[in-house]
Amino acid sequence: MNQTDSFRHEVREWLEENCPQSMRAPLRSEAEACWGGRNYTFLNDDQRLWLERMAERGWTAPTWPREFGGGGLDREQNKILKEELARIHARPPLISFGISMLGPALLKFGSEELKQQHLPAIVRGEIRWAQGYSEPNAGSDLASLQARCEDRGDHFILNGSKIWTSYGDLGDWMFCLVRTDTEASKHNGISFVMFDMATPGVSTRPIRLISGKSPFTETFFADVRVEKSQVIGELNQGWTVAKYLLTHEREMIGGSGLSSAGTAPVSKTAIQALGTDNGMLSNTPLRADIARFEIDERCLELTIERARDEVKAGVSLGASASMFKYYGTELNMRRQELLMAIGGYDGLVWEGDASHDGHTPRAWLRSKGNSIEGGTSEIQLNIVAKHILGLPG
Ligand SMILES: Cc1cc2nc3c(=O)[nH]c(=O)nc-3n(C[C@H](O)[C@H](O)[C@H](O)COP(=O)(O)OP(=O)(O)OC[C@H]3O[C@@H](n4cnc5c(N)ncnc54)[C@H](O)[C@@H]3O)c2cc1C
Q1: What Å distances lie between residue 218 and 128, 167, 226, CA to CA?
Q2: DSSP string for residues in 131-147
Q3: Side-chain half-sphere of 24: how many Cα atoms within 13 Å?
Q4: Is pTM, for the whole model, over 0.70?
Q5: Rounded Cα gap, residues 108 and 103, in angstroms
Q6: Buried-most residue among 177, 250, 273, 332 (CB within 10 A)?
Q7: Angle, helix 238-255 to helix 320-343, in steps of 10 degrees
Q8: Strand, coil or helix: what is 253?
């Protein structure tokens, strides 16, 4: 057996022993995802066990170095792990902004102390992170942000506010963009800081959405103490860190609706809901739309795979993240439209967690935000036009 085969064998055996049966089914709704954090209540023992066992092996962050609690897997091994997880329909053990956004930035720009302090806790799902980027007058034009950290010798004092903070009320710590130099040009006076959201002076207020839920908050800072040791990268050079983190955020958002990320294939949902005629989905127009969707989905998955290979070979993901964010979110919105069509009248059921295979109109409405979060579709198209197609700005 060569090395690849023996690794696959080892992973398969380990998953067989350690992945609880109830965790071998796609997530039916966001409410079933495990987010971890200081105050997280596990839905059941299996969910807790699955997180603990995966974290123990570092497989919640499979490619992070072992010294920081990660799995230390190379790209090929990570691919095998993903394939084996998909084979048994295993749920992600942990959904975490710490893993998908902060971690990569910490690994690239953080000091040794900051990495040791934060990365192992992220791997274990102990701390839930919130993102403090947007402000009422700084969204697409993020560098206009005004939340301000004043230098008080050994620490800063932060005042200002953020908006659209996803799960701000559930966050334990926040990574946040603040202005530390008001004289410098707008991109130069920004720093990337982190603080505990339990620090006196931090408060949140829910924002209610069209879906009836409130997954994000306004976040206010009144004389909040921020330690100088919690700056990632150079003081006043946080924009570089912020942009790097955004490429990871965009890649994560673009890929989150894909079947390979643990959601049920649309065709499977359709067959379960509508049945088949001579082995084919009985609703012909829908069948064609679903086939087109799944071909496009597969193409995106393969293109993302290719880009990851290029990154491994030293090519920066850079502007490609905008392409993936745009196309991936367009696909996810198409997925939700299809699921609504498959559901028919049943798909309109508003109450309860699941109408068919976990889909609800709430998820359809939530998908509308995909074209805004992490940078709007228009902004992504601008970046693709300028930096990939080389069109004049
Ligand atoms: C579900 C969701 C979750 C979010 N989570 C977070 C979070 O956790 N933390 C956080 O900090 N933020 C978060 N955001 C905020 C998000 O990043 C911003 O909403 C986004 O960057 C857009 O900013 P804005 O809302 O101020 O819109 P604006 O920037 O005011 O844009 C308004 C409209 O103008 C268009 N526009 C603006 N500039 C241009 C241009 N140059 N060219 C063409 N069109 C343009 C935009 O595309 C948009 O259609 C979240 C948003 C959503 C929807």
Answers
A1: 17, 10, 19
A2: EE--BTTBSTTGGG---
A3: 11
A4: yes
A5: 9
A6: 250
A7: 30
A8: helix
**C-alpha 160 to ligand 1 mean position (Å):** 19
**Among 236-250, 286-300, 311-325, whose mean pLDDT is lowest?**
311-325
**Is the CB of residue 13 below 6 angstroms from any atom belonging to ligand 1?**
no
pLDDT digits (tens, 9 = 90+) for 142-198: 999 999 999 999 999 999 999 999 999 999 999 999 999 999 999 999 999 999 999
Q: Render pLDDT for 375-391 as a digit per residue (tens, 0 to 9).
A: 999 999 999 999 999 99
Name the amino acid, one letter, at 265: P
Cα–ligand 1 centroid distance for 372 (angstroms) = 5
Instruction: Yes or no: say if 245 and 101 are a contact pair by the CB < 8 Å rule.
Output: yes
**Structure tokens that stand for 363 in this block:** 């998820």
Residue 285: both structure tokens together: 């127009």
Q: What is the pLDDT of residue 352?
A: 60
**Closest C-alpha residue for ligand 1 atom 7:** 165
The whole-angstrom separation of Cα 232 and Cα 254 is 26
Beta-bridge partners for 132: 176
One-letter amino acid at 157 equals I
